[in-house]
Amino acid sequence: MVVVIDPQIAGISGDMLLSSLVDLGADKKRVIDGIKASEKFLSNSTINKIDFQKIQKHGIECLQLVLEINEEPHERKGSEIKKAITDSTKAIGLLEKSQIFAESCIDTLISSESKIHGIPEDSVHFHEASSIDTLVDIVGVTIALEDLGLFDEKIVCLPVSVGGGIVTFSHGTMSNPASAILEIFKNSNLIIKGDNAKEELTTPTGACILVNLANNAVEYYPSMKIDSIGYGAGQKNFETFSNSLKIIRGSQNNFDIDSVKILETNVDDVSGEILGNLIEKIMDKGARDVSIYHGITKKGRPTNLVSVICDDENVDDIVDTLVLETGTLGIRISDSNRFTVPRTIHDVSLTLHGQSFKVNYKKSTFKGKTDFKIEFDDLKKISNTIDKSIKETESLLRKEIEKLENPHDKS
Prior knowledge:
The protein is an alpha+beta fold. Helix content is about 35%, strand content about 35%. The strands form 7 sheets. A 4-stranded mixed sheet has the order 6-1-12-11. The protein has a 4-stranded antiparallel sheet with strand order 14-15-13-16, with helices on one face. A 3-stranded antiparallel sheet has the order 17-18-19.
């Protein structure tokens, strides 16, 4: 199964996410009862009414949170909100992984404020986030996620719209996105994008929930069979778009999804020795793969296309290496989503020819068939040590690993 969160147009807030999850199929009564049970853990705040109603947003039928509260506006310490959330999730009997998720959401919010203001986390005070709204959003979303079983699903997120223009709040006026939004997204893999809405489209509470829920960014919808869709409406209305968040749940082939960078450059005056050394250096910089293709340039000269697959964090180092080692004057960089067969990494100690070796291998399962691949560096090392060919060494190791993987197989 796969879940796609689509905040490309209207961004995300805590109540939009909560509403979309209930629209997706989460038990509305369980969510409301859990939120009401949490009210007592935050002093001087009362929930007078809470419900979900169907409304239209630019012709799209969405679910919207209806929340009427009674509280005196004032600042609260972040630790007070955190305690109320952790006490609530325990009291209503959520699973341990759900409790950890809720706590991580409020921790992200507190950490962002701490870094922005340069103060210890236990000294952080909330202003806009001091309302019981924050508790309602985080606890409500956690209940809904657990009810739908989404903590066990693959969750991906499309680019997050943050709006534009300026925002005015307790700390004054600043450009949008505000510092808290930037800080929350800074250490995630998610992608943000601005637009001409000239308003805040993604709130700090929505952002902190999102980065703890989905750390896999995609630019396009994955190939999937759609099973259900949830639409969660925001409180604002816009003239040119529906202020709603979409969540799509579906199924796909047994693949994982990730996003990688592809770096490419053409070089036509570099020797084979340099290219061989280049591959080693780039792999040492953290590349996932390096390929070199031979071709002819528009001037009829032989050329080599160097193509590198890597993660975001390795791009700068690899670009530097490409320029320094080849003298290239330009490198193309593009994003690519990948479908990968799920795999796990294992290591075992095996004895061959009276010697003990540590062997690393990757095991994959696809459509009920399991296979494994031994790391080539281990094959090479063991092959040289026992003075056998790579092919013969692999055969010996596979037999030993198969015995461990299938201990009851007598064949």
